[in-house]
Every structure is written in C-alpha cells, then in structure tokens.
Specification:
With 153 residues, the protein is α+β, with helices and mostly antiparallel strands. It has four helices and eight strands. Strands 1-2-3-5-4-6-7-8 form an eight-stranded antiparallel β-sheet, with helices on one face. α1 (9-25) packs across α3. The longest helix is centred in the N-terminal third of the chain and has 17 residues, at 9-25. The protein starts with 8 loop residues before the first helix and ends in a 22-residue tail after the last strand. Residues 1-5 have low confidence and may be disordered.
C-alpha cells in the first residue's frame, strides 16, 4: 500500500507545470489550462490543485482553486517586483524577492517598498550577489512560524 502522505508523480508533474507557467508568463495557469495540458477533466485538475495546496506545494486563494502563490512567485501584485530580463515577477515577501533570482539562476533588479515609509528600494542581484544602497530586511517571525499562516507572513 502506498503512503498517502506522498505526492503522486502526476501531482508533481502538475506542480512542475505550474512553476513553468509562472516562469514563462509571470502568472500561474488556471485549472482549465492545467486540465487541457494534462488531458484531465476540470474536476480532476481542481482535485489535484487542492492536494498540492494541502501539502503546501502552492497556495490557493481562500475558498477557490485559483493559485495565489507558488513560492517564491505571487499571482497578485505585491510590494516586491522582480525584473529578470524581459520578465517582471511579483514576490510574496522580502525573502521571496531574493528567491526568484536564486531559483532562476539569473541576475535581477528588484523594487521593494519599505514597510515603514512606502519608499522604494532598488536592489540589484548580479552573479548571485546582492547590491543595494542601504536599508534592512526584517523578518518579524522566526522561520519555524511562517507556515502557521504563510499568506499573512
């Protein structure tokens, strides 16, 4: 009997497709697009999205099967925009804004708003090194608490 906590190869293929779509288009695929890609019914694709959400492979908009985030990518505009070549991505937080160029192994220009002033900081990532003119990245919760409410943190 297989372990119910393990993800199926099919679910992992869907997760890979979601990430590929984020990288190529700066947005996640819809359930309908995923169903077409894998020759599934939309009901099967929704079930797959739900399983991946439950295992924290990505996060859905509450009460829907629309992807909100697949770390480090955000499906909605945030205070963290990451320009990688011609593509502009949204990051979920300061940690993820650095995760996008790391995940893509690419240089990037990041525009992030300071929480306290609303001013924009520009951070350049070149050859894996961060270049900036000041400021502090603050994580208000320890990493072990991030998954308590990842959308909030």
């Amino acid at each position: 009997m297989s372990d119910p906590n393990l993800s199926s190869d099919h679910d992992l293929a869907v997760r890979t497709f979601v990430y590929q779509q984020f990288v190529q288009t700066a947005r996640p695929p819809s359930v309908a697009e995923t169903a077409v890609q894998f020759n599934l019914s939309e009901t099967e694709a929704r079930s797959c999205y739900q399983r991946l959400h439950e295992r924290h492979f990505f996060f859905l908009e509450p009460g829907t099967t629309s992807i909100l985030m697949a770390n480090p990518f955000s499906a909605i505009p945030t205070k963290f925009q990451v320009q990688v070549g011609p593509m502009a991505y949204w990051a979920n937080c300061a940690w993820d804004m650095l995760g996008i160029p790391a995940a893509l192994h690419q240089d990037a220009m990041i525009e992030a708003q300071f929480e306290d002033t609303g001013e924009t900081a520009v951070i350049i990532v070149k050859n894996g090194q961060m270049q900036h003119s000041g400021g502090v990245i603050h994580f208000p919760l320890p990493v072990r608490q991030w998954y308590d409410d990842l959308i909030l943190t």
